[in-house]
Design a protein that fits this description.
Helix content is 80%, strand content 0%. The longest helix has 31 residues. It is elongated and about 50 Å long.
Length: 98
């Protein structure tokens, strides 16, 4: 049964990578990053259940906290860039270079 969860985690992580590489919309890129973080959480929890340890659950909670902070900061940056440029293309982030 563990293999099914790990395969699902790998598939979700690969879909996240494809979304980050292939898409140009900022929101799609951030959703793909969140998908990758959730895939890592699934793998952590799966290994924690197999080894009957709480370490994986603790790591998953830390990843969730990092994902929440990343989402809040990324949303603020996206709103400011949209106000400044008026579009949500990933090329807009070249403005952040000095």
């Amino acid at each position: 049964m563990m293999h099914c969860y790990l395969y699902l985690s790998i598939i979700l992580f690969c879909l996240g990578i494809v979304g980050v590489v292939a898409r140009r919309n900022v929101f799609t890129v951030f959703m793909s990053i969140e998908l990758m973080l959730n895939a890592a959480n699934l793998a952590f929890v799966t290994f924690a259940r197999v080894h009957e340890s709480m370490d994986g659950h603790v790591l998953a909670m830390m990843v969730m906290a990092v994902a929440a902070a990343e989402a809040a900061l990324a949303l603020a940056v996206v709103i400011l860039l949209h106000k400044h440029k008026g579009k949500l293309d990933t090329n807009v982030f070249s403005l952040l270079k000095g």
